[in-house]
Design a protein that fits this description.
About 20% of the residues lie in helices and about 35% in strands. By secondary structure, it is of the alpha+beta class. The protein folds into three domains: about 65-105; about 125-320, Jelly Rolls (Sandwich); about 330-410, Immunoglobulin-like, CATH 2.60.40.2080. The chain has a six-stranded antiparallel β-sheet with strand order 1-3-4-11-6-9, with no helix packed on it. Strands 2-5-10-7-8 form a five-stranded antiparallel β-sheet. Helix 2 (about 30-40) packs antiparallel against helix 3 (about 45-50) and helix 6 runs antiparallel to helix 7 (about 85-105). The chain is elongated. Mean pLDDT is about 90; it is low at about 100-105.
């Protein structure tokens, strides 16, 4: 070991020098690898001898941090983020990016304004051949002049032609009868004409036909009845679509007009109507893009209506629990198939029963009794007009003593939408 002394003599210096020479003689020679590096003529050759890649050489040669970050492939946004001097500044950078991304993408609200768009609920019946409501919940299956048979259909289990594995679809078989005002259509009327007013909306559906045929879609702003409502605005977003025998997806992105300066009726019957036209006489050419009259079979599935532009979404059909969908359907229609009214009273006196609705109805409903039978009773009537939550009914005892009445009853709180030309 080399040792330095204070106040060393010339002899000490000689001893130290001899020790340094001895130590240098014991150092191992450099390896061939290190020798090639140390003997390189320039930095580039040294980098090569060190095994640097072209990318590594470029990174080492960068003159500043910004250039190095570019060589590393860091985006301009990430450079800005890395240059931020505090967490608050970084959050500001991230917020700016988020807003730009949000503003540039198509925007929509993930809520289907169509009820029973997958045609799962058919409380009233599984088919109908008359105009109006009579089969699939919430859908008005209309025909004037021409005739139709509308029915519930089911998909084969596991089919993939329509996404989401829907179980059911709607079928309308049209028999056309010539007439300028004749038509066959399917409509859902949404509560309140203010729905989507002044906004963009996306209607999406899957459809096919028995052969190549066209259908049309249309929105209508219906300002209702009562007072002096504004005239309906028809032909909103009218488009025609060409169907084949295979299921296809169709979309319409529509701008719904504002209702500024419009007058809404006082009876609470104003609606935004969504119309599917299967055939239409010439009276409706402007509303149906000259669809015209035709006979044929038309199938419809997986209908959705979203606020905003959802045209870049592969399947814009928000999932809802079946029970939630049924509850919404029951705001418009409910039925009770086995209501029993019984009691003991004097002749011509009444016995009573109260029904409390499963779901509060949209409005005070109309009602209809069916399949009514009696024992020592008669004259089933309403004791009080039904409210949105319950209904009291009564039957009259024939002769003093016990009696009963058994009946079915339906309740309707429907909106039919605009039926004019």
């Amino acid at each position: 070991m080399l040792k330095l002394k204070q106040n060393h003599t010339p002899r000490d210096v000689k001893v130290l020098t001899d020790q340094l020479v001895d130590a240098a003689g014991t150092i191992l020679p450099a390896s061939p690898y290190m020798a090639s590096v140390l003997l390189s003529d320039d930095a580039s050759e040294a980098q090569t001898n060190l095994g640097f890649s072209t990318f590594g050489k470029s990174l080492i040669d960068d003159a500043d941090a910004s250039t190095a970050l570019s060589t590393l492939g860091v985006s301009s946004f990430a450079k800005t983020l890395l240059d931020d001097t505090s967490a608050a500044a970084a959050r500001t950078t991230l917020d700016a990016l988020s807003k730009t991304d949000y503003d540039n993408r198509k925007q929509y609200v993930w809520n289907n304004l169509i009820t029973n768009g997958d045609f799962y609920w058919w409380q009233i019946n599984t088919s109908q051949n008359f105009d109006g409501f009579g089969s699939d919940d919430r859908w008005n299956n209309g025909n004037i002049g021409s005739t139709k048979v509308h029915s519930w259909q089911t998909f084969a289990s596991g089919q993939t032609d329509v996404p989401g594995f829907p179980a059911d679809f709607s079928r309308t078989v049209v028999t056309s009868v010539a007439g300028a005002s004749n038509r066959v259509f399917k409509r859902q009327s949404l509560e309140y004409v203010s729905t989507l007013a002044g906004k963009t909306a996306t209607l999406t559906f899957w459809a096919k036909a028995d052969t190549n045929r066209s259908i049309a879609i249309e929105f209508v702003q219906n300002f209702g009845t009562g007072g002096s409502p504004s005239a309906a605005v028809t032909g909103i977003g009218s488009q025609k679509f060409n169907l084949t025998t295979a299921w296809q997806k169709f979309q319409a992105v529509v701008s719904i007009p504002s209702i500024a300066a419009k007058t809404i009726g006082t009876d609470g019957t104003d609606t935004l109507d969504v119309n599917f036209w299967f055939e239409a006489g010439s009276t409706f050419n402007a509303r149906t893009v000259n669809l015209g009259q035709q006979s044929g079979t038309f199938d419809l599935a997986r209908v959705s209506l979203l606020q905003g532009d959802a045209s870049d979404v592969a399947d814009p059909f928000p999932y809802r629990l079946k029970g939630d969908e049924l509850a919404e359907c029951q705001r418009w229609y409910q039925f009770y198939s086995n209501v029993f009214i019984s009691g003991y009273n004097a002749a011509n006196a009444f016995i009573y029963n109260d029904i409390y609705f499963t779901t509060q109805m949209r409005a005070n409903p109309s009602f209809s009794f069916y399949s009514t039978t009696y024992s020592n009773a008669s004259t089933l009537t309403s004791n009080l007009a039904p409210s949105r939550t319950h209904h009291r009914m009564q039957a009259k005892i024939t002769a003093a003593g016990a009696g009963w009445c058994q009946t079915g009853v339906e309740y309707f709180a429907l909106l039919f939408g605009y039926n004019g030309n």
